[in-house]
Amino acid sequence: MVPNDDKISTFQLGLIIYLTPIGVGIFTLPATLAKDVETNGWIILILGGLLCMLIIYFICDVGKKYSSLGLVETLKLLFGKFLGSVLAFPVFVYYVIFTAMEVRIFGETTKMYLLFKTPLEYIMVPILILAIILARNGIEAIARFFEAAFYLVAFTLLLVILIYLPKSDYSNLLPILRVDPLKLLKSVSDSLFSLSGFEVLFLLFPFIRRPEKALKGSLIAISFIVVLYIIVFVQCIARFGVDYTSTLLYPTLSLIKASDVPGAFIEGIEGLLFSLWIVLIFTTIVMLIFAYSIVGSNLIKQKEIKHTAILFLPIIYVLSLIPDSIAETFELTDKLVMVLGYYTIIALPILMFIASKVKGARG
Amino acid sequence: MKRFIILLLVPLILMGCWDKTEIEDIMFIYSIAVDKVEDKQNDAPQKPFYEFQNQNLEVTFLVPNPAKIQGGESDVLEEITVKTQSLPEAIGMIRKKQNREPFFGHEKLLILGEKLLKDDKSLKCVLDWIDRDPKKNRSAFVVATKNVSDLIKVSPRLEKLLPSYVIGILKNEAKVATMVSVSLNEFLGGIKSSGMAMLPIINRQKDEIVVKNVALIKDSKYVGELDDRYIRGYSIISNKLHEGKKLFMFKREVLSYNITSSEAKIKLDEENGRLVFNVDVEMEGDVEDYIMNEDILKSDIIKELQENISKQFEIELKEVVRHFQQDIGYDYLNLKSWTKKHKYDLFKKYEKNWDEAFRNAKFNFKVKSFIRRVGVIR
Predict the structure, then answer these.
(1) A5, B117, B163, B276: which has the fewest Cβ within 10 Å?
(2) Across the interface, do A115 and B19 touch by the CB < 8 Å criterion?
(3) Quick one: fold of A10-356?
(4) What number is the average pLDDT over the span B253-275?
């Protein structure tokens, strides 16, 4: 019997780290990589994954030490009350904007492929409401939902891979390592940010039953995501070639669309896959809402995180409708990544790692 | 309060009805045929309207009529034709004369007229429209034809619908060496990445449709035709051959060799500032006919036959390459992308004037053919 104490097991933690980063990013990722580094995207993905693992190590090292405190409390402990709050505030803003953009891109994509006439707002509002309902129920409910969703997703992904494996031209992946090394290093950030979402790990430490095992669980989860991303990238390149992939907006969706199952007894499986993808997006949105409500309630010293989640719902809705077009949405997302993403994903963990070492040496 | 909240949630559940479409209201477009029929040019820089001018394109949508199919009638394909300047305009015009909503998800065949292929601007317009819309079927086949309006009037003898007849012929590509079939995906990929593509040409012959020759497209424009005889060599060099026959000469008799598999291995060197491609081909197959009453079941005769076939393949491949190098002058053998993949340094060196390098390149062929079976008579 699993105790009802608002704690999650290591397996559940791994699932959260696995399902949170997989969201709208997986659709655009092959195009971004193909544009920047041509066929070497899979190398970049591995490098990005390794970098991500390093950051996870930092996070876990700090998190284990102060496992009963959340992110904000840890920051306050390490940097003092005022400075700690100041450092935590951008993280909150990051999560709020990230949620808004995720919801918007979800709406845009759904409108383009599935619901052509339904207004954008009516696509976004229900998923927001459903996500809020789940996020309000606390980490345990979320973890259990993720468990349920995982098997569905894992099975389908396996099916899709089996469909595509034989009919592609894998020589499209050559040549290897024939681009400017500087360009390669620059695009590592592309692949790191395609994994963004893993940083919720920081907020989860107070909820983990055995914090000392968090590192192992998260590392396994990240490596599984990297494998999935590599498969998607390789399939896109093998099917479309580099030049064509980089002109597509959602290469992954076009790949699904271009499927021709041998024997052709099923056609147009994209509808099926699309509905499963909505589950993946939903898990991302739920976790992001949960993340901002934790940070937000710690910042304003509100005990019930449920209330914070609802409080910022209108802001998220309005924010997600600010970009006028899909082009603007992508630009805004890039800007978010440039400013707040670097801070939350790279700068803050390193800063906290150093501070905790200094503090540990002193104390 | 609780009831009030439930009442508020009801519209959210009902929003699924927003996109409801009844199947009776849909017109399933099976095939699109586009050709250019006029050459009007009328572009004043600023005008209040740009609609209904320069209607150079003739677009035909082939739609199966479900009522007729149910009734068991023979002529079940409806042609809906409009004259228009672009395809988005065509859709608008079709909605003015047909009540059902056009649906492109099951579109299986795209027929492009020769005059359209000769006009790169119009062709790009059409292709961009197809590429941009997520609802289009990307595995549809693409063909070229000389006379669209003539072609779509054919009523096939053994099939009910013209597009499935054409698609069936195109699928025979797996068994015929002198034929290619191109899907929308491959076509768009070729045009967008290198500007080069091939399209099978289909034409009407009385009440049948025949695939003959291949249209060559360069920089989104039709540049010429490739004779059927050169296609087998092309398929062998670019490793696209599935199955097919070759007729060869042996003891002053023309015999048939059925290739069941072929694999080409390319090696590239550079000699005196010129590329040298060494192509090693290995193929397997069966002999389909032989001289009557002469014993074939001897290993030295088989060996002799094999050597003969190999030699004739070497001659054929040399001629194919010569044709591409000298008569056509462009690298349709996909050697540019092969070089990029396998010999990046040489690719970088010759990238700028690849066509020149291709024309000057030297080709050496070495064919090894195997006869595995000879049939049931000796």
Answers:
(1) A5
(2) yes
(3) Amino acid/polyamine transporter I (1.20.1740)
(4) 88
